[in-house]
């Protein structure tokens, strides 16, 4: 297994006429949780989409040692799972059916789900504590509950690399804590997790932090080192401060007065 | 029993109900007509009654089912493909495109739209199909893809109006075609014979098989473009295949029965109101629902002002329009996803 799960070299991407990513070089270690942070418009989501091959880019992206654009689409889909920001959610599908969509990369055309698919979906729904609502339709769930089902859909892919853009949207604090535990378990089992988070205190629980500003990476490093904290404070114009609390790192707004 | 099982059982019960209702309507359709209500089993003894039932009422009734099934299927595909619960073949302009295709074919061939020869039938179906495909492509072009719902519907309306106007112009230049097209524009099953029925059934089999294969794409698309792409679905060719299915189903139905509105819109909504399910089942159920709706409308069109007959397309437009107004009033169709 390669030590680098995702690699970018000279990566550039545009949204319309605007150049959003500018010459990004990035190595994301395998079997670790890396969190991408930065102010609004820094290019975090665009970077994540480019790494997933979901938007046009120039430069090179390598997934588990293979050039991303050369990987067959289904093999790529089995290797890299994606959970998007504000993913649309069809009201009429049941929780079970929606999570089963995560198994599409594994199913041949015309095949009905087999026992392995059923097991993967059950494990994913149980991991996100959505198992009890498996027969409900999405229209019957709250925003936070839907987010857990969408996460289950991504987990059901059982890909070695999992990319998540704002996965904590709509989740209440206890379920944010559950999400942290889940990510920890995934990483222990060898999954590479890359997420974009706005919740800086939760982001500081990751193994590594990638700090972005204006389409560039300003810093990449472990979450428990001073240089990372300085970089984090700098991209937010020193309006947040990183503090230690009971052996963990938290961010607080800087007092203005 | 789990909730999952409950939804499956609901879908299964709906299939049973639609098949039973369909059989009942076939019997009713074979019995009702301008000559009065005739018991089908008496037709075995009376050659004239037999001819009326076998040559006129039965192909017409089964033709109504086939056209409705094609429109129900097309409606479910359109709503899934464009991720818009208000999309139907008519609203996307494909029906207007199909009718322009038929009008142009009639001008060049100089025949009645309900001519009973295989060659002409295939020619008209081909013209309707070509018109439907071009209209959908034009709508997509104007809407710059399928991402913006409002733009898509607006583009569909514009294409429908423009192609409708072109059809009117074609008819104006050729009065013989205008007369032939009148019944076509109002929608009618009264000229459907066995040949037309066979063509529609054959098209339905092809479209049903294709949509069965392509249904996972529609399920994936319901999660959004990026997620569908991340699931390994080659969206461009698959979308194209779905547009072809949409155009083929609409074109085949419109070529044989004329413009029949709202069946494609109402059928998937009615199915969803009973059973929540994946596109594979939704499309099959919508097809059955569409068949039953059009057969019921056809029987009503024959029976409401008997012995005079109403154009079935006008009837479905009135009933379907009412249904659409009710949907808008209820607000479900246009409501955005819940955010909290």
Order of helices and strands of chain B: HHHHHHHHHHHH
- H/E series of chain A: EEEHEEHEHHHEHEHEEHEE
What is the radius of gyration of chain B computed over CA atoms, rounded to a whole number of angstroms? 20 Å
Count of separate DSSP helical elements of chain B: 12
Helix content of chain B: over 70%
From the helix content, strand content and strand pairing of chain A, which structural class follows? alpha/beta
Describe it.
Chain A is 30% helix and 30% strand. Chain A has helices spanning 44-51, 73-79, 95-100, 115-127, 143-156, 173-188, 200-203, 226-235, and strands at 4-15, 18-29, 33-37, 58-63, 66-67, 80-83, 161-165, 192-196, 208-213, 216-222, 240-245, 248-253. In chain A, helix 4 crosses helix 5. The model of chain A has no long low-confidence stretch (mean pLDDT 92). Chain B has helices at residues 3-31, 47-81, 94-109, 118-143, 149-173, 175-186, 194-221, 225-230, 235-257, 263-274, 279-303, 312-330. Chain B has twelve helices and no strands. Mean pLDDT of chain B is 82; it is low at 333-340.
Write the layout of secondary structure elements.
The complex is a heterodimer of chains A (257) and B (340).
Chain A: E1 4-15, E2 18-29, E3 33-37, H1 44-51, E4 58-63, E5 66-67, H2 73-79, E6 80-83, H3 95-100, H4 115-127, H5 143-156, E7 161-165, H6 173-188, E8 192-196, H7 200-203, E9 208-213, E10 216-222, H8 226-235, E11 240-245, E12 248-253
Parallel strand pairs in A: 3-8, 3-9, 6-7, 7-8
Antiparallel strand pairs in A: 1-2, 1-4, 4-5, 9-10, 11-12
Helix pairs in contact in A: 4-5
Chain B: H1 3-31, H2 47-81, H3 94-109, H4 118-143, H5 149-173, H6 175-186, H7 194-221, H8 225-230, H9 235-257, H10 263-274, H11 279-303, H12 312-330
């Amino acid at each position: 297994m390669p030590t680098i799960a995702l690699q970018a070299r000279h990566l550039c991407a545009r949204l319309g006429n605007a150049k959003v990513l500018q010459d990004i070089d990035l190595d994301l270690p395998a079997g670790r949780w890396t969190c991408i942070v930065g102010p609004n418009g820094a290019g975090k989501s665009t970077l994540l989409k480019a790494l997933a091959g979901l938007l046009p880019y120039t430069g090179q992206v390598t997934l588990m040692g293979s050039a991303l654009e050369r990987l067959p689409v289904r093999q790529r889909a089995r290797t890299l799972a994606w959970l998007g920001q504000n993913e649309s959610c069809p009201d009429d599908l049941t929780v079970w059916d929606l999570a089963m969509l995560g198994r599409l990369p594994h199913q041949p055309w015309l095949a009905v789900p087999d026992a392995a698919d059923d097991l993967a979906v059950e494990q994913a729904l149980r991991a996100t504590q959505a198992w009890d609502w498996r027969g409900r339709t999405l229209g019957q769930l709250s925003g936070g509950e839907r987010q857990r089902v969408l996460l289950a859909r991504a987990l059901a892919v059982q890909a070695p690399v999992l990319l998540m853009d704002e996965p904590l949207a709509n989740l209440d604090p206890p379920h944010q804590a559950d999400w942290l535990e889940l990510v920890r378990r995934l990483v222990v089992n060898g999954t590479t997790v890359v997420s974009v988070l706005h919740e800086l205190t939760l982001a500081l629980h990751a193994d590594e932090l990638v700090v972005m500003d204006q389409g560039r990476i300003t810093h990449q490093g472990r979450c428990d080192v001073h240089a990372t904290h300085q970089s984090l404070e700098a991209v937010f114009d020193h309006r947040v401060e990183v503090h230690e609390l009971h052996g963990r790192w938290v961010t607080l707004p800087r007092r203005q007065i | 029993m789990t909730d999952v099982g409950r939804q499956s059982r609901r879908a299964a019960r709906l299939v049973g109900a639609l098949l039973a209702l369909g059989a009942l309507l076939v019997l009713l359709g074979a019995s009702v007509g301008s000559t009065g209500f005739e018991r089908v089993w008496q037709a075995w003894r009376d050659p004239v009654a037999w001819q009326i039932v076998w040559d006129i009422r039965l192909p017409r009734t089964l033709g109504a089912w086939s056209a409705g099934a094609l429109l129900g299927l097309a409606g479910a595909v359109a709503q899934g493909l464009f991720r818009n619960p208000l999309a139907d073949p008519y609203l996307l302009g494909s029906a207007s495109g199909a009718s322009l295709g038929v009008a142009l074919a009639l001008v060049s061939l100089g025949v009645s739209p309900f001519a009973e020869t295989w060659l002409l039938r295939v020619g008209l179906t081909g013209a309707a199909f070509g018109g439907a495909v071009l209209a959908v492509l034009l709508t997509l072009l104007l809407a710059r893809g399928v991402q913006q719902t409002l733009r898509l519907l607006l583009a569909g309306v514009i294409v429908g109006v423009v192609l409708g106007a072109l059809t009117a112009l074609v008819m104006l230049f050729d009065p013989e075609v205008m007369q032939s097209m009148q019944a076509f524009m109002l929608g009618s099953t009264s000229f459907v014979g066995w040949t037309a029925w066979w063509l529609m059934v054959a098209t339905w089999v092809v479209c049903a098989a294709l949509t069965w294969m392509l249904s996972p794409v529609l399920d994936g698309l319901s999660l959004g473009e990026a997620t569908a792409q991340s699931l390994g679905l080659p969206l461009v060719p698959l979308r194209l295949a779905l547009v072809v299915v949409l155009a083929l189903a609409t074109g085949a139905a419109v070529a044989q029965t004329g413009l029949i509105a709202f069946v494609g819109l109402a059928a998937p909504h009615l199915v969803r109101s009973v059973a929540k399910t994946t596109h594979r089942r939704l499309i099959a159920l919508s097809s059955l629902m569409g068949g039953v709706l059009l057969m019921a409308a056809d029987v009503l069109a024959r029976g409401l002002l008997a012995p005079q007959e109403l154009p079935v397309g006008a009837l479905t437009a009135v009933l379907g329009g009412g249904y659409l107004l009710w949907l808008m009033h209820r607000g479900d169709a246009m409501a955005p996803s819940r955010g909290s």
